[in-house]
Amino acid sequence: MKEERRDYFSTFFSEQMEENRFLQWGAFRALLAILQWWGFNVTVIIMNKWIFQKLDFKFPLSVSCIHFICSAFGAYMVIKVLKIKPLIEVDPEDRWRRIFPMSFVFCINIVLGNVSLRYIPVSFMQTIKSFTPATTVILQWLVWKKHFDARIWTALVPIVGGILLTSVTELSFNVFGFCAALFGCLATSTKTILAESLLHGYKFDSINTVYYMAPFATMILAVPALLLEGAGVMDWLHTHHSLLSSLLLIFSSGVMAFCLNFSIFYVIHSTTAVTFNVAGNLKVAVAVMVSWLIFRNPIPALNAIGCAVTLLGCTFYGYVRHKLAQQPGTPRTPLNRPEMLPLVNDKVDSKV
Fold first, then answer.
1. DSSP letters along 92-147, please?
2. Is 10's pLDDT higher than 70?
3. Are 213 and 106 in contact (CB under 8 A)?
């Protein structure tokens, strides 16, 4: 009897230790995933800003096109050559009927992000990008006539208020850059909403998304980039000093852009939705801090407060959304109007 009891306790404690080790490894893996995601994201943003500001390569369409080319090549290597990820087969007809429209919006989203980086500081651009949850809800409400719980609208108030405060107090305010970032939010929201309808039936991860969309995006952007920026790029190539190192940096930013997509795939499978939401908002704060250390763009106190309010609002919005997802439908919802949650993927932040 004593032997059986001893064996029972021995087995129990052994299982507990094994479970603790598993939890510790899971927490470490999640932290590692978040840190490398932050690293690639901040690196891409800083490199793009450096290209526009320090290298005087003021051609956002060309930079975006290089990113698409590098990402398409990287996704092909990962899926077809290295076989790290299995290919999700898509019907040829669906590629044009479903994926091409998504790629068009995806292309606009990335181009507008790079255009805004050319004209406004990283801190301001990142704060405006945090407006995406609000634009998604508003678009669904106006265009798709969706109805949302009052708590969703309440959660958007600090986001909107923080954006307004940041915009009013931004010393380097530029109307063109501001509009590009704002319309970029609309493009991101449109892409997310379209994904729900166009890509139903396909469980795309970030790598397969890039595999299918990056070639289309390259095709869409190549002609406008050539017509609008071709002459300027040729002049830059003939007059710029340290041409080899500059070109290396530009193409490296494309490689980093693909690595960012790969890191998103890793972090999606290592964290929960709530952790991802909080980490995404902290990532913005890290990007703002690093950009300030490098570019030293002035950030007034009220501007910093506005940025902080926006990020806290995004975190609160994510919390409210998570709670409503666990308990869909509330007494406030009219019987003839089903309660809807915003069609914002908990774990999508992909950016080529």
1. HHHIIIIIHHHHHHHHHHHHHHHHHHHHS-HHHHHHHHTTHHHHHHHHHHHTS--E
2. no
3. yes
pTM of the model: 0.81
- Structure-token pair, residue 45: 């943003």
For residue 220, CA distances in Å to 59, 103, 191, 227, 268 come to 16, 9, 16, 13, 29
Helices (H) and strands (E) in the chain, counts: 12, 2
3-state class of 201 per DSSP? coil
Q: Which two tokens stand for residue 67?
A: 């990113």
Q: Which long-range contacts (CB under 8 A, 24 or more apart) does 125-128 make?
A: 125/177, 125/181, 126/45, 126/284, 126/287, 126/288, 126/307, 127/162, 127/163, 127/166, 127/284, 127/288, 127/306, 127/307, 127/310, 128/163, 128/166, 128/167, 128/178, 128/181, 128/182, 128/184, 128/185
| Sign of the C-alpha dihedral computed for residues 80, 83, 262 and 89 taken in this order | positive
Alpha-carbon gap, residue 55 to 298, rounded angstroms:
21
Beta-bridge mates of residue 340: 148
Q: Render pLDDT for 243-270 as a digit per residue (tens, 0 to 9).
A: 999 999 999 999 999 998 778 767 777 7
Both structure tokens of 21: 């080790």
Range of lowest pLDDT (22-26, 31-35, 217-221): 22-26
